[in-house]
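Re: Re: ligand-bound prediction request (bumping)

Still looking for help on this. To restate: I need the protein modeled with magnesium ion bound, output as structure tokens. Inputs repeated here so nobody has to scroll up.
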Amino acid sequence: MEFFGLTLPSYGWETVLGSAVSGVFLGAIYALVALGLTLIYGVLHIINFAHGALLMLGMYGVFFLWKLAGIDPYLAMLIVVPGGFALGYLLQRFVIGKASHGRDEIILLVTLGLSIVIENGALFFFSATERSVLVPYDLDGIDLGVTYAVWPEIAALAGSLAITGALWLFMMRTDTGRAIRAVARERRGAQLVGINVDHIFAVTFGLGTAIVAAAASLLAPTYPVHPQIGNLFVLIAFTVVVLGGMGSFVGALVGGFLIGITEQLGRLYMGESLGVITVSVIFILVLLLRPTGLFGQRSGQG
Amino acid sequence: MLELRELHAGYGQMKVLHGVSLHVGEGEIVALLGSNGAGKSTLNNNISGIFRPTAGEILFDGADIAGLPPQAVVELGIVQVPEGRRIFPNLNVRENLELGSYRRARSRRGANLDHVLTVFPRLGERIDQIAGTLSGGEQQMLAIGRAMMAEPRLLILDEPSLGLSPLMVEEMFELICRLNREGLAIFLVEQNVVQSLEIADRAYVMENGLVTLDGPASALLADPELKKSYLGL
Ligand SMILES: Nc1ncnc2c1ncn2[C@@H]1O[C@H](COP(=O)(O)OP(=O)(O)O)[C@@H](O)[C@H]1O
Ligand SMILES: [Mg+2]
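Reply:
Sorry for the wait, this slipped through. Here it is.
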């Protein structure tokens, strides 16, 4: 097979399907990281540049809980998810919100600055060394025929779907969830029914951070943590958010899977280094052909 | 019940209200009339805590509430139906109404929802419809229904008849009378001068951020000065 002058190898369908399936597992994590980003975008209308740094911080949390207290990385969710929520809430309420005086362009710079502070703090305190969480079950799993899925992959998929579902239920069924959706589209109206908009912004930021902390737990058994790990995922998450439509939940999920599959197929056909480029190519194509993404028209929930 | 004393407010450097004093008593309908840009909405939003007045007092049951955040004002029972309705377009009718009791009267949400739906059967027919797809008149009903969900003691209505058909305007004024008979004090901001004065107990006329005329509605209705300068009659 030839593709822009490159001769691509030809594979049997099992290999291709196997690659696509492992792309689904990878995509589940992308979707989860993107979900936090798209939630914050949809409500606060800001791009949270600190998202990747918060993911990294979550992974260090999981790592140290395992290393120092022997806590299983999945069990660590019970600690890092509430911790992430609290951190996100406080950051938005007392740092980002306060420093920005409600001006979006300043918020952007504040989150960018925050990410630099967190990353350099990590470099200073934890050094650039890669650290891995070792679990006894990381090579066990289920034989799917076309590919072998290890438990961390299965947990990533199940965890992502469960968290997305739980978030959706929360947004639809609880007063706080409805208040978040209300604030996303009509801040003045929300104030006039007595919704404390600053509180809802902080809750939203807290939820976004809690979600990325859950992603950190799901990633820890397969990805070694280092101070720059967040950048890798957040760059892809930006692509997912743009692909899926800014602010759309369904878009984040579908976009995550699409990018995961594309990346794995790209790897299969073009090798490690060129494979990752396929994601960037898709990103640019989407911006050119459908700038609102697959599921987006306006901000708000899809 | 509500009393404004020498209220000054504006936006940054721009002054809009230059010392407004007025009051609304229990069970009254008080109309605030005035042309576009007079500062009526600015006044409402300073009462509701959206903006903070620069000087003066806003007394509610004798306590100064100036500068309280909007949620605290709602909690006290002052609920505003704003100009432009400001319903939640991405939420359905039921969710919009239920959020009306987000801060106040939450424990009586079910009963109040039933009550709102008997007042506005149209909203009941469209209970699962996304609010952004309602007609203008239906959106205005929804905005008022949402405010009713909080069991207001004082209801502030900012140009509720704006953009409605003449028939709907008629219904709107009847509704305001009905809510008032149920015991609600109403502060009505309107450009529909004659109809407002017909249902109001008292009225104020505001020009360029100052109250220039006030008195019983019936007296204002007969006032040749008002007729000439404001009604263009
Ligand atoms: N959010 C705002 N920011 C700045 N200026 C405003 C704002 N809202 C209203 N104004 C200005 O304040 C003045 C009074 O407006 P407003 O209170 O809306 O009058 P009214 O409701 O009587 O038509 C106008 O000059 C208007 O342009
Ligand atoms: Mg106005």
